[in-house]
Amino acid sequence: MRKKVTVIGAGNVGASLAGYIAEENLADVVLLDIIEGVPQGKALDLLQAGPIRGYDINLVGTNDYKDIAGSEIVAVTAGLARQPGMTREDLITKNANIVGQVVENVVKYAPNSFIIIVTNPLDIMTFHAFKKSGFPSNRVMGQAGILDSIRFRTFVAMELKVSVKEVQALVLGGHGDSMVPLPRYTTVGGVPITELLSPDRIQALSQRTRDGGTEIVKLLKTGSAYYAPAASTAEMIDGILNDRKKMLAASALVKGEYGLSDLYIGVPVILGANGVEKIVELKLQPDEKEALHNSAKIYKDMLKVLGY
Question: Which CATH architecture group holds 145-306?
């Protein structure tokens, strides 16, 4: 029997994610949305692309949570997207209500699944899902650090005019303006960018990474990024389903690592068949650690909005 993944929310992120899962032949996909016809239509459209794109999985669109039963992974993309002038933090209350309802149904119909949160504000929604679900923390995680890291990789590749495949990057902290790019751990062909770029250019690229989502929101004017967030989520799904043991940045529950506890924030994790199998503690320099702690404080304060 093939594995099964559910994507909650058939908007741009959810539909793109379903397509990426199909392209990789990772699993059968259930695409769920509350709007009648939309998930059914997008799933059928994706299914019909299979003969040319070379995938042979089943894609089903539904409005009924009963259809998610048996899912190994549930990726939650449902929620309101940011609009120009709106921060991720503006979305807290509205999207918390949506995520809370989704998680209740996941617990009811797919109680053994892993939950990957994509809904913004990412780290807050992931903590909320963790609390609402009652699942162990290794089975609840947020997609954030991968997206921030691939944005950094892209900007570095553009700057140095090299293949993006040659660039590896690491971005920690909350998925927002306080994220912490780590140039020391960002390399091109194994060479740290601190040896390839001036401090000013590194700072500029780091800031563009922090503003990466906002830049796209301003350009689109009526929505937010979806291809890269969906690709990042597909990477996490692949890591779990195929037990890749990859070290990836993700929003995970810290329990003393980096001197932080009782919140979800972007940290390096080993992702495998047991979900978040380990949080990797890097030796951060004082300024890097201070930036990470500042990011954590912002998200700790934001959790108070939801009563945590």
Answer: Alpha-Beta Complex (3.90)
Question: Where would I find the beta strands (DSSP E) of the chain?
Answer: 4-8, 28-32, 59-62, 73-76, 114-117, 140-142, 167-168, 171-172, 180-181, 187-188, 191-192, 246-255, 261-272, 275-279
Instruction: Tell me if residue 266 falls in helix, strand or coil.
Output: strand
Residue ranges in the chain whose pLDDT is less than 50: none
Classify 166 as helix, strand or coil.
helix
Q: Which tokens in the block code for residue 290? A: 């201070």
Topology (CATH) of 4-142:
Rossmann fold (3.40.50)
CA distance 276 to 254: 11
Active site residues: 175
String of DSSP letters for 227-262: HHHHHHHHHHHHHHHTT--EEEEEEEEEESGGG-EE
Which amino acid, residue 226? Y
Q: What pLDDT is recorded for position 260? A: 97
Tell me the CA end-to-end span of the chain in Å, nearest whole number.
41
Q: Are 33 and 39 in contact (CB under 8 A)?
A: yes
What angle separates helix 122-133 from helix 286-303, to the nearest 10 degrees?
60
Alpha-carbon distances of 284 from 20, 152, 186, 196, 277, rounded to whole Å: 34, 19, 14, 21, 21
Domain(s) of CATH 3.90.110.10: residues in the chain? 145-306
In this prediction, residue 83 carries a pLDDT of 65
Give dist(CA 292, CA 300) in Å, integer. Answer: 12
